[in-house]
């Protein structure tokens, strides 16, 4: 199967999910849709979730999530205990985040910009299905790349399309990086694997529609993400 064909299939899957949710939402108010989203997130948090591929294989075992407050998160040196499956809830945005690895390298400082390779898995929580992903061998030569800058702790980013763009850009046809994807940059380090013991940054997140990509915003659905961040060579 060609890569263009693969992207077409992924795009159609995302479009079908959006159309399905749109048809389900007819007659519902925005408040109704947000309430449905909250219930879906709460259910996701409290059940032993395994994300399955179309072949029935387990892509990620999410498990039962232990939610911690921002205060506890900060008291733990801005870490989440993976052994306890902790996720911190950022109450201002509704984003939940687990830092699996803080990563090699350094944090992005004020005034700095970097080009970052992003590999991800996106799971639509409302439809209980993997919606798109680039964390597989198929996309190893065409990853998503974002250009990100830090200005006094405020991060701005866009997808770089010089290589034709990665899976996320091609599926959603937008250079806009979801707001939720920027949350980890306050806490993780952005570098490369130089030594055998070095590991690039990796997070897991629940992103409500208000912090997600355009389809999620219009369809009012939350997504679960597993994302790695790696500094790109000059």
Description:
The chain has 6 helices and 11 strands. The chain is an alpha+beta fold and 234 residues long. The protein has one domain (3-65, 92-231): Chitinase A, domain 3 (Roll), CATH 3.10.50.40. Strand 3, helix 3 and strand 4 form a beta-alpha-beta unit. The longest helix has 23 residues, at 3-25. The radius of gyration is 17 Å and the shape is globular. The two termini are 32 Å apart. Residues 5-9 have low confidence and may be disordered.
Radius of gyration: 17 Å
Q: Pairing-aware structural class of the strands and helices?
A: alpha+beta
What is the succession of H and E elements? HHEEEHEEEEEEHHEHE
Residues in β-strands, percent: 25-35%
CATH class: Alpha Beta
What's the count of strands? 11
Measured distance between first and last alpha carbons:
32 Å
Main sheet makeup = 9 strands, mixed
Explain the layout of strands and helices:
Elements: H1 3-25, H2 30-46, E1 49-52, E2 58-63, E3 66-68, H3 70-75, E4 86-90, E5 95-101, E6 113-124, E7 129-133, E8 144-151, E9 154-159, H4 167-172, H5 179-182, E10 201-207, H6 214-219, E11 223-231
Parallel strand pairs: 3-4
Antiparallel strand pairs: 1-2, 4-5, 5-10, 6-7, 6-8, 6-11, 8-9, 10-11
Briefly characterize the structure.
With 234 residues, the protein is of the alpha+beta class.
List keywords for this structure.
globular, two-stranded antiparallel sheet, alpha+beta, Chitinase A, domain 3
């Amino acid at each position: 199967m060609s890569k263009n064909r693969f992207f077409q299939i992924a795009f159609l899957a995302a479009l079908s999910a959006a159309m399905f949710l749109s048809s389900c939402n007819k007659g519902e108010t925005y408040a109704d849709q947000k309430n449905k989203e909250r219930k879906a997130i709460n259910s996701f948090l409290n059940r032993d979730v395994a994300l399955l591929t179309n072949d029935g294989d387990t892509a990620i075992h999410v498990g039962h999530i232990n939610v911690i407050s921002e205060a506890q998160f900060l008291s733990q040196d801005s870490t989440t205990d993976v052994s306890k499956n902790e996720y911190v809830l950022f109450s201002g945005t509704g984003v939940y985040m687990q830092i699996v690895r803080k990563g090699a390298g350094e944090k992005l400082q004020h005034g700095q910009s970097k080009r970052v390779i992003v590999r991800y898995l996106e799971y639509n929580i409302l439809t209980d299905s993997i919606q798109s992903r680039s964390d597989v061998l198929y996309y190893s030569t065409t990853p998503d790349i974002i250009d990100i800058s830090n200005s006094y702790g405020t991060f701005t980013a866009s997808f770089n399309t010089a290589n034709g763009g990665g899976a996320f850009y091609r599926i959603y046809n937008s250079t806009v990086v979801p707001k939720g994807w920027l949350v980890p940059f306050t806490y993780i380090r952005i570098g490369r694997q130089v030594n055998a013991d070095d590991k690039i940054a990796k997070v897991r997140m629940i992103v409500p529609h208000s912090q997600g990509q355009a389809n999620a915003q219009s369809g009012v659905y939350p997504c679960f993400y597993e994302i790695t961040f790696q500094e790109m060579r000059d």
